[in-house]
Amino acid sequence: MKLILKEYLASLNERDELDAILPDLLSQMGLVVFSTPRRGIKEYGVDIAAVGSIGGEQEKVYLLSVKAGNLTRETWNGSSNQVLRPSLDEILDSYIPARVPPEHKDKPIEICLCFGGEVHSGIRQEVTGYTSRNSTSNIQFSEWNGDKIAEFILQYFFNEELAPEKYRRLLRKSIAMLDEPDVSIQYYKSLVNELCSQELDDKKSVIAVLRQLNIYTWMLFAWSRDVGNLESAYICSEYVLLKAWDISKSFLQMRGKNTEVINHLIYKLINLQLTVADFYFEKIVVPSANTYLGLSSMVAPSCAVDVNLKLFDLLGRLSLRGIWTYNQYCLLINQNEAEENLRAFETQYHKTCNLIMSMIDNNSILLTPYKDDQATDIMLAIFCLSRCREYHTFIESWLKNLVNLTNISFATNQTYFSNIREYRKLIAHPINATKEYREEVTQGSILLPYLSLVASMFNFEELYTSIQSLHRDFLSHSNIQLYFFNDDSENYLYNNMEMHGSSLSDVDIQQPAQDLLTDIIEECESSNEINDLSAMKSGLYPLVLTACRHYRLPFPIHILKQLKD
């Protein structure tokens, strides 16, 4: 386990990676962290500052200066952007005299040289000479290299009390099987389930589990990045976020300082999932999105079904990332955030929208859904794009083409969307051209009412008429239905342990568009259990959408209704 940890630490970048796990490690060690990295603020050499006692020693102030990888001549005092020695000079000259909190000024100070790798032998003499010359009776230096940090992680995160051998075994297996993502995901989800099924009856026990989930998922991501297969890291980080919220939500309603700790850890897991997603999209989507059939060819399919399933799944993932970005942008506006930070989120949102549109333009298979439940991925894309009016024309064009090609698929008995869930049956679909077969595999539809509702909300009259024709000609037998959360949803949405929710059946999409919209709005007002969901109360509606995408639930109508309000 220690070798795995050392390799993991050596692979981490300084900013937002190594300095992201160290505060949790220090807190787990019993120290009180009073300063963490913040962008745009001069740190005077100190990335992390904490106070407390380690291993029963005298209480000290620990000032950590963090660098990535091995400490080489270049990163010690070279031309690199991130060099250690000037940071140590700033700590001695500026931080200690002026920035140590008054209540800690009389305590001994330990300046910690933190790096994920090792000190190269060529600069050992310079490092030792520097620390010896600048040590005093009250200021000491220590090296926290990959070996020492790994030892701390083993002691405080992997001890028998927190992580019995079966937990460590599951983590090792998940990392070892990263080239077989389905197997890796299975092992990691088992680990997460074991952690979250403990008796978590107080805030401290929840905090301990959240910290474990954070560091274990960082490990999985770092190894996934190294082997070049990010599928397991993406799915697992999404699952971890949902399970973390599930075990934390009841404690977030309570007052007290540990509530803030839990809230902070939840946001760290959100940021971790978004970090994994960004790396995934930069590797998978960005290089090929603007190339005709670029993403389709990357699937290396054995049949068109593989391409279809993967690209709609990818569309949902990318759209969800755009929704998170837009949500963060709105939160920052409400907090009067600096204009520069707002522009960064605005730029990222538009970049994501452009990737979505390029995906659709260059991969025609995204015009022909094969499964009715791909409505979730389609609606995520529509919701993401619709937050900006300039993309409404594209939405209309995309959906008109989608409905027209779907109509052709039904008319010519090509692969049309169905309720088939089994992969083998989906490959063989359609097995014949009989009306009886078509009615059997299209008994219900959530896709048609969603598309009808979008058309009515945006006044896409031609689209609405085309949907009515598709329904009338081929799917008049189908139960047109919409999904709503119910009283059980709060208990099961984030963990998927039981079925929940209710459906509105026999939705009339043959009526005029505005009448349909009125009916749905009235139903939303009478079936508003979504407002009782903890994530909605906390302003984290993208977390609800994450659960819908991950567990393949329909897109919540109430959230879509935001576009009309």
- Fraction of helical residues: 55-70%
Summarize the biggest pleated sheet: 5 strands, mixed
Radius of gyration: 27 Å
> What oligomeric state do the depicted chains represent?
single chain
Mean pLDDT: 93
Low-confidence stretches: none
Task: Give the strand order, joined by hyphens, for the main sheet.
Answer: 1-2-3-4-5
> What structural class is derived from the secondary structure elements?
alpha/beta
Binned strand content: 5-15%
Number of helices: 25
Distance between the termini: 53 Å
Description:
Helix content is about 60%, strand content about 5%. The chain has 25 helices and nine strands. The strands form three sheets. It has a five-stranded mixed sheet, with helices on both faces. Strands 6-7 form a two-stranded parallel ribbon. The longest helix is centred in the middle third of the chain and has 31 residues, at about 305-335. The chain is elongated, with a radius of gyration of 27 Å.
Secondary structure topology:
Blueprint: H1 2-11, H2 14-28, E1 32-35, E2 48-52, E3 60-67, H3 73-77, H4 84-98, E4 109-115, H5 124-134, E5 139-144, H6 146-157, H7 165-176, H8 181-196, H9 203-227, H10 231-248, H11 257-284, H12 294-298, H13 304-334, H14 339-362, H15 375-386, H16 392-412, H17 423-428, H18 435-441, E6 444-445, H19 447-457, H20 461-474, E7 479-480, E8 482-484, H21 489-492, E9 502-504, H22 513-526, H23 534-537, H24 541-551, H25 557-560
Parallel strand pairs: 3-4, 4-5, 6-7
Antiparallel strand pairs: 1-2, 2-3, 8-9
Helix pairs in contact: 1-6, 1-9, 2-9, 7-8, 8-10, 9-10, 9-11, 10-11, 10-24, 11-13, 13-14, 13-15, 13-24, 16-20, 19-20, 19-22
